[in-house]
Every structure is written in structure tokens, then in C-alpha cells.
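Cross-posting from the modeling subforum.

Setting up a comparison between two proteins and wanted a second pair of eyes on the formatting. Protein 1 (sequence, then C-alpha cells):
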Amino acid sequence: MGDTGTQTGGTLGARFKAALLGLQFRATCGVVSLTFAVIAVVCWLFVQTTGNLTGQLQRHQCSQLSAVLAHAAAEAMERGDARALTALAEQFTASDSLLFVRFFDAEGTTVARGLAGAAQDGRWGGSTPLAEDHPLGTPVLVRARDDFPAYLDVTCPINKWSDRKQRGTGDRNSSTMRPSALLGYVRLGLNVEPSMSELSASLDLVSGTAILLAILTVPSGFILVRRIVEPINELSGVTDDFASGDLSARSHVRRTDEVGNLALAFNRMADLHERNHNQLVALNAELEERVNRRTRQLRELASRDPLTGLYNRRHFDEVLSRRFAEARRYSTPLSCLMVDLDNFKSINDTHGHQVGDELLVLTGLTISSQLRAADVAARFGGDEFVVLLPQTTRRRAQTLSRRIAEKLASTVHTQLPEVTLTLSIGISSLEYVESDDPNDLVRTADEALYAAKTDGKNRIVAGDPVS
């Protein structure tokens, strides 16, 4: 009886133990299965995120490339320089990243093109008319066909850029470049086949990894869970950093399995994007420098007199205000010369306007040759010139005036011997001007010039103080 009870208790204990083992086994299997399912979902989300990120980066890159090409080709398109456009297209299609580049005029006629190797060896017909159904500036994915790889197709307008004044700013010279006219279009095809192949391979690797994990034993499953989850989390974090703008983010996973291959594929994709991004940044910097240089040239031209090359009156007035304020603030000398050609109208009527223009040019060159870097000479109007002399007293201004008159007389006698030319010069100095109006300095010099003219011309007269 006791033996029977012992056997029954042993049997119940064995059954209970077996039930516990079974429950533990099922719980373990459930945990492992749930873990595998979570891993599978994480892998799927990672692939989707990577695919979406890659697509967004490629579209962004494609749009930037088209905009950069449009800016780079604007000048050549405006000139109608097909050779320069062809060279630009061939430069961008030298690598396999761009399959083709085509430039069209405003009517949609092809002006120049560049084809990569896939188009040149006959696998592509080469016909890329301007696609009217594609929105401008928006890349459209064209699937692979006839052994021709998949690519992003984008068309971008090429505009003429003009310099316009900005309103609401204190700087009169403040300006911005804005499109003013449509010159044509640029259409390009960005090869996305390598990225799509890498993503497809990565997806296959992740799927194989999930299947392998599903058939492993419980202990191996837990080990594999730990080995896979950690690098995937690391790679996911790197992807987030990369998507947030850190283009130097790279995976440090060093493995030979599927996850390692996925990390290598991501790193290759990141390297390619960073290289293209750096090229775009460099090209954008070069274009900005060209625009800034051209803007400076235009500003300089706008402040110059087209005949003599001296500054115009508007620029002189701006410099006068600054130099006058500085001289008053620091109590430094400042002088002004008003120069006028004697009997210029008679010379112009006798020898013609061409000789008159030559005299004006010689006068401007002579004045400039006698000045320092800080001095400013401008054509005041007609045959009158004005010179602003910072850090210059009245006595030094008189010496400079005599030197200018002598130098001009000698130059005219050598180059235009048939002409007799003299100068009348009026001088004003800040030390004798009591007003705080910069224009009074010029007005005093002008009154001195008038006195020189009245007293018989060919004279240098210093003006009286202005109260």
C-alpha cells in the first residue's frame, strides 16, 4: 500500500515535473518565437527605412544635381555655346552615376547632350525628348527595361539671372540674383540601379537570417538573438544619425554574416552619398564665388565713369560723407580739389568731339597718376573733376595741384601737340570750413574754381572759409 502510494506520488511528481518542463519549454519557445518575430519586424522596418532614406537621398541628390547643372549652364546657354554645354554634359556623365545629360532650348529642341557608357554601347536608344508630363524639378523613377538600368529622370529649367536691388535695407548697393528669363532646360538621368541592387541583396540577407533563426535551437536562439539584436541596434542608430544629417556616420559592425554584409552595404551607400554631397558643396561654393565676383565687378562698373574710368559723382558723394565724418571726429586734415579744363568748349568745337574725349581721358589718367591709394578722384560733370585728399593740408593740396597742371600740360603737348590746354583749380581744406555739412567742402572748392576762372583762368586758387 505504501509502495503503491510512493509509486503514485512518484508518478504525479514525474508528471508535474514533466508538465513544468513542458511549460518551461513552451514558454521558452514562445519567448524565442516572439523574439524572432520582433527581430523580423525590426529587420523589415530597417530595410524599409533604409529604402525610403535611400530614395529620398537619391531624389534630393538628383534635384540638387539638376539645379547645379542649370546654374552652371546658364551662361553658356545664354551665349548659345553648344560646345561648352557638350563639354559640361560629358564632364558630368564621365562616371556611371549619371546615365545621360541633355540640354534643350526654350522650345524643347536638343542643344547638347552627354551619355554614359550604358547609353553609348547601344543598350539605350538615346532618344530623350523633353518630357512634358514630368513636373519640372521633380525626379521621376524610370524602371529598368531592355537591359537599361533604372534611373531617376528630372528636368530643370535654365534661367537667366539678373541683379536686382533689395528693398528695405540701408545699403544702397545691396542686391540679389533672381531669375529673369527662361533660357532652356536640362534633363538628366541618375543611375539608381546599384543602390536598388544593394537594397535588394540586403533584403534577401535579412530574410535568410530570419529563416535561419527560426530553425535554431532554444539555446542557440538566445545566443543568436543577442548577436543579431546588438549590431542591428547599432546599425539602426547609425542610420538615424545619417538621416539626421551626420554624413560621417558609419557602421562599425565587423562581421562576415548577413548583418555584416548589410552594414557594409550601408557604409558603401553612405560613402557614395557623402562623396556626391561633397562634390555638390564644392561646385556650389565655386558657383557662389563666381556670382560674388561678378557682383563685385558690376558694383565697380556702376561706380565708374565710362569715359575716363574715374569714379562717378554718386560714389564720390558716398566717400565724401565718410571721410568728412572721420576727419571731424579725429581732427585730421582733409582737402578737396575742383579741376576744370580751360576753354574746353572752344577746343571741342575746333578739333572735334573725339579730341575732346581724348583730352578728358588724358586728364583723368593724369590726375590718377599723381594720387595716393587713399585719394579719390571723380568726374564731377562735363569737363569738371573733383579730387578728395584725406590727410592733406591746403599747402600740400596746392603742391599737388601744380604737379597735376604741369603733368597734364606736358602730356597734352606730347600726345596732342595741336591742342593747347590749361587747367583752373579751386582748393578747399577742412581746416577753413566751419560747417558740418560735407557739401560745403566741395562748395568752397567750387567757389575757388569760379574765382580762378574769373581772374583769367590757368590759375590755382584756395577758397575762403564757409560760415
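Protein 2 (same layout):
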Amino acid sequence: MAGLAFNLFVPSALVRGFSFVRILARYGERLSGHDATLRLLTDIRGWLFMRLFLRPPLND
């Protein structure tokens, strides 16, 4: 019988390729999420210290 044989190498290579894409996408998402969080904390910290240090001194 000379039927067509199913090639297992192409689907397995696609699965492996998609797994690498998933790894890279999750790494990129984690980097961007941490970057956004740290930028927000920087802004909040700057705002807070500006508000704390610009208050007039208390008269005793």
C-alpha cells in the first residue's frame, strides 16, 4: 500500500514553536506589568513626598 503517511514532525515543531511564543509573551507581559507598577509607585511616592514637605511648619 502506497498511501500518504502523516508527518509527525510538522505538528510537533508547531507545538514547540507555539510554546516558545507563549514563554516570550508571558515574559513580555510580566516585564510590562512590573514596569507599569513601578512607574505608578514612583509617581505616587513623588506626589506624597511633595505634599509632605511643602506643608507649612506648625506653630507651637
